[in-house]
Structure formats: structure tokens, C-alpha cells
Amino acid sequence: MELRPASRVNGFVVAAVLLVLFLAAVAGAVLGFVAVVNGGGAGPLAGAIVATVLALILLVCATGLTVVNPNEAQVVQFFGRYIGSVSEPGFFSVVPLTDRRPISLRVRNFETQRLKVNDADGSPVEIAAVVVYRVVDSFKAAFAVDDYEEYVETQSEAAVRHLATTHPYDAHDPDRTSLRDGAEVAEELTIELRERTSTAGIDIIEARITHLAYAPEIAQAMLVRQQAAQIVAARTRIVEGAVGMVGLALEQLSQQGVVELDEERKAAMVSNLLVVLCGDRATQPVVNTGSLYA
Q: How far out from the chain centre does Cα 81 lie?
């Protein structure tokens, strides 16, 4: 069984017809009983009974009138049997004596709890995500799962846990995706949640990480490690730049013939330039007042 539209007609037309017929039936029943009281015999009595039964039938038919709000669907059941859904907003008349269950089609969002899990490297992290979703199949949302809202929340937490265990907090290898790679992680989480919640007729619009941090017991140690890694990376870039600058200086000195340096003096110059360029403190210049080799 799958989603299908329920049979319906304009509710205003049906309501007007039912109202006119009901008033006519009530009037006929009243006149019939008045005639019976005045000794009218069996004819007026039969007419009054028929009019009363007709009025009751019209009241039963009025139970099919329903109002559907914008961005809402009503799942219609007739004595337990699914006969269709009404997704268009308006005033309609469906099959009488049916049970109508409203399902919201509005966009919803919720944030998962902060979950404590171990990442791919075994480090405990705290992670949470926000999930934006909406119902696209009212039949599955009503009958495929017990409570689709609870189902989405449970599957979201499971997907976030799985995501955290398959990626490290920090990826030292450029070929690996870390939890801090926002766009890639969000896309992966969204795709996984769509697969998990399609059974319930849910469309996941977006899922993103909103909180990511190391667990408190290792946060300080991981902060020191991150600082050390950043220092090493910065020093590497400085050395690369300094080597390029030294090479460029020696090349231009040689091309322009400013000074002729032997290998020993080139080594000394390279050493001094690297100390100046790679040092983490300001250098103090020393003026040599003697000869070049003194």
C-alpha cells in the first residue's frame, strides 16, 4: 500500500445541501408528529418516522466534513482501512464516519543532545548536530513507524554517533576527512540520514554539526598537541620561505657582481640569514669594522 489521494468534494456545497435537507427533514418530522397528535392516523406517523431517519442520516453524512490547513495532510481511515490522504488546504467532504489523522508537512528542525563518543582515533569527543526535515509521504509517516518524530530523533543520534566514529577530530593526513571539515561532513551526514529516514516518509533537507569539542578530561592535552602542531607547521613555512629568500639573495649578489664570496663565506652568510629569518625574536645587528676575513 502506498500514498494516494482520498476521494473528496467541495465542503461548502455539501454543507449547504445537507443543511437544506436537514431543515426540510426536521420540518417534515415535526409536521408529521403534530398531525399524529391531532389524530392524523398511520400516514402522518410513517412520514414523520421517515423524516426523522433522514435527518439522522444527514447528520451522519455531516461527519465527513473536514478542514485541511496549509502545509498539512489528513490521513483518512474508514474503520481501520486506509482510503487516502488529503493534502490540499481547504474545506472538503470525505467519506462519512472516517477517522482523520492530521500530519504536519511543515519544515521542522531540532538539535540532538551533546553526545560523548570516541572518534576514529579513539579520542573522546562531544558532538551535536541540527537536523532540518519535513514529511513528504503522509502514509509512511502515519503507518510505517510508530512515531515519526521520535524515529527521526533516534536515527539522527545514531547517524551522528556513526559519523563521529568513522572520522577523526583532526586529520593529519590530507587525504582523510576530519570532523572539522564542515561542508563534507554535513553532506555525508545528510545523505546517511536520508537513507535512514526514507522508511518513515521523511525528507532530510539539511544536517550540520553545531557542537564539536574534545571531552573535558583530554581537552587540555589535546590543546597542547594542537598548539605544537601549529607551531611545527608555522616553523616549516618559515624555513621554506627563508631558504627561498637566501637562495634569491645569493643568486642576485652573484648575477650583479656586488661581491665575490667563497664557499666558506657563503656558508657563513647563509647561516646568518637563516638565524635572522627563522628566529622567533628580534635580532641585534653587529657591525664588522675590520676586513671581510677579520
A: 33
Task: Compute the Cα dihedral for 234, 240, 246, 251 and give only its sign.
Answer: negative
φ/ψ of residue 34, rounded to 5: -65, -40
If you count them, how many residues does the chain have?
294
Radius of gyration of the chain (CA): 40
**128: which strand partners?**
211
Place of cell 564539536: 212
CB 68 within 8 A of CB 88: yes
In b/e form, how buried is each residue of 217-250, taking b as 16+ CB within 10 angstroms?
Answer: eeeeebeeeeeeeeeeeeeeeeeeebeeebeeee
Calpha distance 218→225 (Å, rounded): 11
What lies within 8 Å, CB to CB, of 24 at 6+ separation is none
Cell numbers at 71, concatenated: 502545509
For 105, phi and psi rounded to 5 degrees?
A: -105, 10
Could you read off the pLDDT tens digit of each residue along the chain, which spans 294 residues? 788 899 999 999 999 999 999 999 888 888 887 777 776 667 777 888 888 899 999 999 999 999 999 999 999 999 989 999 999 999 999 999 999 999 999 999 999 999 999 888 888 889 999 999 999 999 999 999 999 999 999 999 999 999 999 998 877 666 778 888 888 999 999 999 999 999 999 999 999 999 988 887 765 666 666 676 677 777 777 777 777 777 777 777 677 766 666 666 667 767 766 666 666 666 666 655 555 555
Angle of helix 182-197 versus helix 148-166 axis, rounded to 10: 140
CB atoms closer than 10 angstroms to residue 102? 16
